[in-house]
Amino acid sequence: MLVAGLNALGSLWIFFIMSVVCADVIARYVFNSPLTGVPLTITMSLIAIVFLQLPDALKAGRVTRNEALLGGLLRKRRRLGLLLQAFFHLSGAAMMGFLVLYIGPMFAKAWETEAFLGTRNHFTLPEWPFKLVIVVGAVMTTLQFLRLFWIDLRERAALSRAEKSNDIGSAP
Questions:
Q1: pTM (2 decimals)?
Q2: pLDDT, tens digit (0-9, with 9 covering 90-100), for 26-47
Q3: How far is CA 145 from its chain centroid?
């Protein structure tokens, strides 16, 4: 539910930045006066949108991986494929976990110091909301990777049990 909510928030944010870009284009060509801060807003928004939508993309199986190798193994040698896929999911969880450990203190510092992005007296944005979105998205993606890792291990164990029971049942 939370993962889908983050994805929906990311989609709404896309709609927002599309509206801002359209308004900026109209302001540039009709009034010869661009909107202030549009490039910075879009740059930071793209990063935020990725982290809002990454957990749902992972849950839906839309994260890039080597499907030629892994897909073939999952079809032909299922137990080995599940082991490799579990390693992929555990590695993803570790990478996202490291990202949380790295960005978490940066978020805390931005919050405490009231850091901003942009140019003073021209256009500024507070930095902490963007860092918070990265932390929340990375935490949710880490949890999603761990969930998939657990599913892989359970399915592999079930296959092992089924193979053992078939071996016992087919003994002379």
A1: 0.89
A2: 999 999 999 999 999 999 999 9
A3: 10
